[in-house]
Design brief:
heterodimer, A: 159 residues, mainly alpha, 2 domains, 3-stranded antiparallel beta sheet, 5 helices, B: 121 residues, 84% helix, Multicomponent Na+:H+ antiporter subunit E (chain A), monoatomic cation transmembrane transporter activity (chain A), transmembrane (chain A), Cation_antiport_E (chain A), membrane (chain A)
């Protein structure tokens, strides 16, 4: 995993040094090329290919995250601009699958930046999270979308 | 083309921040105000930074903008979490139409069980 990543960075720098153009497009191009070369090499010798599944997942997650951030903002914008309130706030107890401190921190960050939600507290045994939700139409539905849409994908990347 | 993109992005960023400040004024209770401002500020500053990167199209400006966005995404949720936790612990009330408060129920249960054990002791 880490070895593949470092090799990929090394290949990127080799590409940048050989072409001699110090800009972002060239870095990105070198990185993707190194990624595919390493993928082919590792596939042929049947080595550990975990890294090559993780990187696309990370990019997919970043896109999903920015989509959610935009959606959250438009939802809140609609509520701010129109005169009456159409929100149903409440504090929900959510059971986490995240175990370590780092995983919990990342999950809390993601929750704070996605649709109308703020983390208020953690339980003492670090099993539950109390989330303030602004648009709480259905509690179970909210919990299942949160765990399927964000938490599962985040943990796939981190573990 | 590039100019139009810069105009759209900087206008969008300004509008997001404007709406967040309206939200602070309009929202009924502390927690919804908080959740309005965290997200809108992050996205608004992000849009303005991207516009700045496109306008200058310079290596050093780009690296600075990326660093700013990274630290903003890392720090603003943590700050929001701490503010909301302190607000809850010091007894800021939820909006009157709130549907449920599962944290309050759990805290009451906890304090009840603590009192019981103190009595037994």
């Amino acid at each position: 995993m880490l070895q593949n990543f470092l090799l990929n960075i090394l290949l990127t720098f080799v590409w940048v040094a050989l072409t001699g153009q110090l800009d972002y497009a060239n870095f990105l191009f070198g990185y993707t090329m190194g990624f595919f070369i390493l993928w082919m090499v590792n596939r042929s010798i049947r080595a550990n290919t975990e890294y090559f599944y993780r990187v696309p997942k990370i990019f997919a997650f970043i896109f999903l995250f920015f989509y959610d951030l935009l959606k959250a903002n438009f939802e809140v914008m609609k509520d701010v601009v129109t005169p009456n309130y159409n929100m149903k706030p409440g504090i929900v107890k959510y059971e986490m699958d995240a175990k370590t401190d780092f995983e919990i921190t990342m999950l809390a960050n993601m929750i704070a930046l996605t649709p109308g939600t703020v983390v208020i507290d953690l339980s003492k045994d670090k099993k539950f999270m109390y989330i303030h939700v602004m648009y709480l139409t259905n509690k179970e539905e909210f919990k299942s979308t949160l765990s399927n849409r964000i938490e599962r994908k985040l943990l796939e990347i981190l573990r | 083309m590039n100019n139009i993109l810069i105009m759209i992005l900087s206008t969008l960023g300004a509008i997001f921040i404007l709406i967040a400040s309206f939200g602070v004024f309009k929202m009924p209770d502390f927690y919804s105000r908080l959740s309005v401002t965290i997200k809108a500020a992050t996205l608004g500053i992000g849009c303005i930074l991207v516009a700045a990167v496109l306008y200058f199209s310079d290596f050093s400006v780009t690296t600075k903008a990326i660093a700013i966005m990274f630290f903003l995404l890392i720090t603003s949720p943590v700050a929001g979490f701490l503010i909301s936790k302190v607000a809850y612990m010091t007894g800021t009330k939820l909006w009157k139409d709130s549907l449920m408060d599962e944290l309050k129920d759990d805290l009451e249960k906890e304090s009840n069980s603590q009192q019981k054990t103190e009595k037994e002791n």
